[in-house]
Structures are given as C-alpha cells and as structure tokens.
Amino acid sequence: MVYTKKTPMTFILGVIMLVYGLTVRSGVLDALLKQSGQIKNSDEMIYMALTAGVIGIVVGLWQMIGSAGEGQMDYYLSTVGGALFILFVAFFVKWWFAPEIKVFSKYVGKIDWMGGKYFHKIFGLNYIVLGIITGILIVNTTGVPKWAENGVRLSRLGLKSGVILLGTLYSFAELTKLLGVSIVLIGIFVLGSVWMVLWLGSRKKIPNSMAGVLSAGMGVCGVSATVAAAPVVVAKSTEIAYTIGTILLWGVFMMFLFPLIGNALELSYAQFGAWAGTGILNSAQVAGAALSYQPDGIETLKVAEVFNITRVLFLPIIVLWLAIWYVKRESTGEKVDIGKVIIGKFPLFVLGFIILFALASTGIFYPANHYKGKYFDNTKVKESKMMTDAQVAKLKSEVDKVEDLDHKGAMSRLIENRKVMSEKDDAHIRTLVLKKKVLSKDVRKILKKAHKAVRHTSKRVKKFRQLIVWFFAFGLIGLGMQITFSSIKQAGGQPLVIGTIVGTIKAAASLAVIYFLTDFAFLS
Amino acid sequence: MAETKYDRGSALSIFKSDRAEDLVALAIALGLAFLVVAFIGS
Amino acid sequence: MLKPKRILLASHGTEGARAAEKMAFSLCQKQTALHHLVVVPDFWKGMMGDDWLNNASTRDTFGNYVEGQLDDEIRSHVKKLIRETEKRGINYQYQVELGKPTECLIKAAHSIKPDLVIIGAPRPRGKTGYRSRMKPEQLVHKLNATLLIVPHP
Predict the structure, then answer these.
(1) How many distinct structural domains can be found in chain C?
(2) pLDDT along chain A (524 residues), means of 10
C-alpha cells in the first residue's frame, strides 16, 4: 500500500508557514503583534514557522513531483501533511485567534455579574481549549482532509513525548511529595467511584457487564479504562456505546466547567491541578483543563500530570479487580492471569517519564537542587531586589511571633543580611509564607519576595516548558480531531444516569477535599 | 470496524505497537533534551 | 395494492425494524426478491475517542471484541430472518454495510434498484438503542424508489 497522496496541500501549507515566518522576521507585523500582545512570541513564531515551512516545502514538493513506492520513506513522509495540518491549526489559534479573543474580551470589559472578571478568563478561553474545540469542529463538519488523516495519527506520540519531557521539570522533593498525595487522593476517589458504580448498579439492577465497563470508565481514566475493561467484563455493544458516549460528553463538558469553577473559587495552581487530576474523567482533558487554567505557565500541568500518571498506574489494578469481580459473579469458570493483566496494561511511556526525571536529578540539564524549576543562588541577587530598610523594620516587628526556632533563625538571618543566606533558610522562609495565623499579610508578602529573589529560573527550564506546552498543544488538538459528535450522541440509558451521579459526586467531593487542604504541604 | 485504510499501525497511531510509539516518544524527548543542553546555556 | 418485485428492507433488529420486517413479509409474493440491508453505524469508528493511554494490544483486543459482538448480533438477526423467509418461501438476500444509515440506504437503493423501500419509523423517545437513525428528509430527496415507513408498534 502506498500512503503518499498526490496533494499540493503539504507544499501550500509549507509556503504559507515560511512566508509567515519571514514576514514576522521582517517586522512588518510588529504593530499588529504588539496590539494583540503576541510580540513576546515573535521569536517562537519565526523559528517554528520557518522550520515547519521548510519541511513542508521539501516534503510537499516530493509528494507532488516524486513517485512514491511502497516503503518506509513513503510511510513516514506521508504523515508530514497531517502533522503540518495540526501545527497550522495550533499556529493560527495560539498566535491569532486566542489573542484576538482576549483583545475582544478586554474591549467588552470586566463583567460585573461574573465576579468582575474578563469573560475569556472566566471561561478559560485560551489557545489550548480553543485548539481542542477547533479540532472537534473540524472533524464534525468538514472532516479531517484525506491528505492529513495519516498524520493526525501522530497526536498520541506528541502527548507521550510531552509527558516524558515533563519528567525533566520535577525535583526529587517535589515529585515524591506530589506522588504521595496523589496516591492517597486517587486511591480514595478511584476506588470509591468504582465501588459506587458497582453498588448503584446492583441497586438499579443493571447487568453486571454494564456496571463493569461503567465503573472502570467513571473511576480511572475514562475512555481508556472502558476500552481496557470492556472485553474483560464481556460488555454488550449498546453498553459500550452508552458508556463511552457518556464519558466523552462529560469529558468535553468538564474541560470547560472545571476552569470556570476554579476561577470562581480562586484555587491555586497546585490545587487546581490536583482537582482536575482527580475529578476529570478523561486523561487528555485533564491536561487540557490544566493548561486552560494556566496557559502561560506549567505549574498546574505538572501537578495534574502526576495525578494522571498515578491514575494510569491504577488502571491495571482496576481491570484486575473487575476481572475477578466479574468472574465471581458470572461464574464463567475462567481464570484471571494476574501477571498477564499487569504487564499487558502497563504503559511503557511512564518509564520514559521516570528516565528523564532520573536524568534531570543528576543535574546534567540544570542545577539539580531546584524547587519548582527554580534553583537557589543568592550571589546573583540584584541590589534592587535586596530588602529595603522599611521591609527590614516590618520583619523585625513580627519576628518574635515565630515560635519554631529554625524558622526564627532563618528570619533573623534574613533581617541581618537583607537576603536569604542558604537553601535551608529558603525552605524555612517558604514555610513561613504559609503561616497565615502567625504572620501578617504584609510580612508574608515581604518573605515571599525575598524567597523569589534568590530563586532563578534556568534558561533551559524555560525552553523545556515551551517545548512541553507545544507537544501538549499538538497532541490535544489532534485528539480533538478524533472526538466525533456521533459517538458523543450515544450517551444515554442507565450509564448516563449513574455516570452523572457518580461523576458529580466525585468532582464535588474531590473539590471539597482539595479546597480545605490549602495549607497542606504539597500545595505550597 | 473493519478498517482497512491502514495496513500499518492502527486508526489511532502510525506505529504497529505502542511499545514502539513509547520508544519513539522517549527518543524524541531525549533528543530534544540534549539539543536544549547543547544549544542553550543554563 | 402494491405488488413489488424487489423490496429493499433496512433493519437491524430493533423493535421498530421488526415491524418493518413483518410488513415486508406480508408484501412479498412468489416472485418478490427481498433484499435486506444491515447498517453498522460508523460512530463505532469514533469509539476509542481520545484514549491515548492504552497500548496497542489493549486497543486491538477492544477492536476485535467489539467487532465480534457486532458480528454476533448481526448473525443471529440474519439467521432469524433466513428462517422466517424460508418458511414463507421468500427469496431472501442480505448485505452488511459500515457507514451512516441514510447514506448506506440511498447507495444500496441506487445499486439494487428496488421498487419499494421499507424502513421502520424512528424509535419513540425514552426507548433504549443507538442514536443513529434514518433521516427521512434526506431519503425523500434522494431515494429513487417508493418509500414505506412502518409505524412503531
């Protein structure tokens, strides 16, 4: 089979991108870009558009003129068109559509009855969400063009690469802390919702097979879990259609609802990441919601993805549980091969994440002892960032309120030197920032500033963040192109009823837990 | 579901197995990581 | 009274479709050929949705499993029709297509050229089943044969 399609589209996309890159470089668009606030991204535009443009032109020419025979080259090069198609949507949405919506939203002004915020903020209308919507709209209206179909299959590769690269951004302390919390939370909520579906199912007397698929879908990671569990519990085709339809519907709905609620409650980035990671059913939409909550940074995504990975690791356990549960109920006499289930369902890319994390902890990318991507160095503190006399006086007035001797020592040394003196002190200062009951708001603000002054973001961290966000954008837009309304429309029957009950309880309960965990260590 | 459009990979991925997909993702991630280290100062 | 020589029946075994089947049987005479179209709705293609976590073997297992399920359902449905048509001495044929019901029916009608097309009425609200129904407006515009819609029992 020859995959290369005789199409001018790859070439045309390449030319458009190249011309765009060159136009931005020439500075013609500067005025427009300044107006939409995108001038800060002009370097990114130039190198992304030029690189993609050149690839598109070369491959596009070959597709038009060359004669493709069967083989590796034909196969892999035929994906370029689709990849450029997704990138084109991403470019358009990130650099023009989303910024213009922001401009429009600012023009409309803050909306009083929505808490005095801009509507693009409230609805989380940034390029990730708009990109996913664009993907969904494309597949459901015109459909993905034939020449792009082959390449759209790269979106999963993009997401996986993004998750693996994300491994570089955690410090050991951060990851262990997050993992601990996520295992507890995910454990409670995953097992809780699986159990709840099974219980509701038996009360409503739905077939075991239906309860089985639905519980996996509501509990672990949506469609993925349903796909894994359906053959195990011998689900009927209508049951699968109902369940997956329900989950897809909920997934898209939650991606909008979560940022809305998060904004209304003013959750911190870490809180929101934890909530999305626990409450949203589909794992792709967890990433979507996290990036939607914080499009310019990555803290939310980092927390959400750890929760996501924990969930993925729970998947084999749930499938195993359902298998045993089902065999017991239906007494089919089959034996469940535990080893086979665990190995068969284990996602290898999680190991990739761990490998990159391990590499990063050796310090080959940037100083290893970073905290949230920032490393400690108090020799680089600029004079303007040193504490002023007024600030020192303010700290002096409250230092005696601190009872813990370590904390007090750190604060005294800070007062003496007008900057944080050691990494250990920095950790103490960071804890003090959270002591709302002990210190006044002003003092906590000063301490936070002092902490920030000695923490520096490495240029490489910035580059990694940028790459990761692009991979996620690419993957999520591509996944959007695979969500069809005709599948969503299948939502119905008992799965819709039970799914709605359990999904709502799960989202609300996890929100409540996370909301009241504000002072808990991992959210600092 | 009889998809005959692709005789390699599946409707969802260009790779035959996602062991391969995972490995390629790892290779991409490692490659980019070393490019970043090579071209961007810390 | 209608005396069709070739009937195209669209049915996938739901309640409404069974009413259409009965109507088709009653209209069949000695020489009538009954052509049965079974459509597997193409929303199944989107059923792996945005799953990106499973490995290929899991997805294959799922794909094969769903295929097997649909296959079983169609086979038992067709078997039942074969039995009933044999009893009545009707010349019966069937055809399975993957796609949108309306489009598949129009396509089949163009290739078979029946003089009567029989479908069941859309399922009433509240009944369970797939959401993938015939679109009568489209049929009315594009069908090249008489269309009979049998009301839901």
Answers:
(1) 1
(2) 82 95 92 87 91 94 80 82 93 91 87 77 81 90 87 86 87 83 88 88 83 83 79 80 85 86 86 89 84 82 88 80 75 65 72 88 74 73 81 85 85 86 83 80 86 80 86 89 80 82 89 76 48
Which of C54, C55, C67 is the closest to B1 by Cβ?
C67
Domain assignment of residue C136, yes or no: yes
Residue C1 maps to a domain: no
Range of the domain at C76: 6-150
Distances (CA, A) of A464 to A31, A127, A297, A385, A468: 29, 19, 12, 27, 6
CB atoms under 10 Å from CB of A510, counted, come to 23
Nearest by CB to A284, from C52, C57, C130: name it.
C52
What is the pTM for the complete model shown?
0.81
Chain A residues at the B interface, defined by Cβ less than 8 Å, are 1, 75-76, 79, 149-150, 153-154, 156-157, 160-161, 164-165, 167-168, 347-349, 351-352, 355-356, 359, 364-367, 458-460, 463-464, 467, 482
Q: How far is CA A304 from CA A181, A185, A316, C145, in A?
A: 12, 12, 20, 57
Mutate to test the interface with A, among B3, B19, B21 (most CBs of A within 10 A): B21
Kindly state the tokens that stand for A327: 């065999």
Does C129 touch chain A if contact means CB atoms closer than 8 Å? Answer: yes
Residue C109 forms part of a structural domain: yes
Give the H or E element holding residue C8. strand C6-10
- State the chains in contact with B (3 or more Cβ–Cβ pairs under 8 Å): A, C
Q: Which CATH number covers residue C13?
A: 3.40.50.620
Residue of B nearest to C67 (CA): B1
